[in-house]
Specification:
Elements: H1 3-33, E1 34-38, E2 52-57, E3 62-63, E4 79-80, E5 89-93, E6 100-107, E7 112-116, E8 119-122, E9 125-126, E10 128-138, E11 161-171, E12 175-181, E13 194-195, E14 200-204, E15 226-227, E16 231-241, E17 260-261
């Protein structure tokens, strides 16, 4: 092999070595630090839409058996670096079926949570609300699952405007959460008082009338209380969003939702 051929061969090897290490590092970052998560349902509207692709910070709260890859962590429990905060949007492993869920953290250990006529009470204090303009979307099949949204202005024909009542919940004068309320008298609008056990958390979906969350027991499809070790991480941002069935359907991309934070 002459010198030019040898230099070319070495350059090719170096190129592929660089690509390999770049992909390896990217894979490790994805596995260890961040995890992408696709939003399959409308339970977190208006803040997360079907077809949003979010990234989850897996170590913001510390290690758990679900955030640690390949069982690298030396313990089964969770060691908190930062305590989960009320208002965080959290991805967690369902205690019963093992699926990944995304909901809003509302109840901390020791809290008393109650819903009365659709309004949220925390530790016997009614959370203040402010009426906002209706949340409006088209009534059509959404995402690969073909989910059709429920509407406050039903009956609504396919293709017409689907409206939902929208409120701003203000917790302790500092945490502001946009929520949706489809109708009065829904099954989850009135609950018993929940006392959150030590080491566990209470979650709600922002689309309150379309969310199976901690208000509902696991036998009825809900999640109940969620243990600390089931937390995967905090949803920090939206990388990409598509209203269509396929990622390649560029005409369905929601460009205004690319690279934005999760509220």
């Amino acid at each position: 092999m002459n010198k030019p051929q040898k230099l070319f061969s070495e350059s090719v090897k170096e190129f592929f070595k660089t690509v390999f290490y770049a992909l390896l590092i990217a894979g490790l970052i994805r596995t260890i630090l961040f995890q992408p998560f696709w939003i399959p349902s409308g339970s977190m509207k208006p803040n997360l839409l079907i077809g949003d692709y979010i990234f989850v910070n897996k170590f913001v709260y510390g290690y758990s058996k679900y955030s640690c890859p390949f069982s690298l962590c030396p313990f089964e429990g969770r060691l908190f670096y930062n305590e989960p905060k009320r208002g965080d949007v959290v991805v967690f492993r369902h205690p019963a079926n093992g699926k990944d869920y995304v909901k809003r953290l509302i109840g901390l250990p020791g809290d008393e949570i109650l819903l009365k006529r659709g309004r949220l009470w925390i530790n016997k204090n009614k959370v203040g609300v402010k009426k906002l303009e209706d949340f409006i979307e088209k009534k059509e099949k959404q995402g690969p699952l073909g989910s059709i949204p429920r509407c406050s202005n039903s009956p609504v024909a396919l293709g017409a405007q689907c409206r939902k009542r929208q409120f701003l919940e203000i917790i302790n004068g500092e945490i502001e959460i946009r929520t949706l309320d489809i109708s009065d008298g829904e099954y989850g609008d009135d609950t018993t008082s929940f006392k959150v056990p030590e080491g566990e958390f209470f979650f709600l979906g922002d689309n309150r009338d379309n969310s199976l969350d901690s208000r509902f027991g696991r036998l009825t499809g809900g999640v109940g209380f969620v243990k600390a070790q089931n937390l995967i991480g905090r949803a920090d941002g939206i990388l990409f969003s598509s209203a269509g069935n396929l990622l390649v359907a560029f005409w369905s991309w929601r460009k205004d939702r690319f690279f934005r934070g999760v509220n």
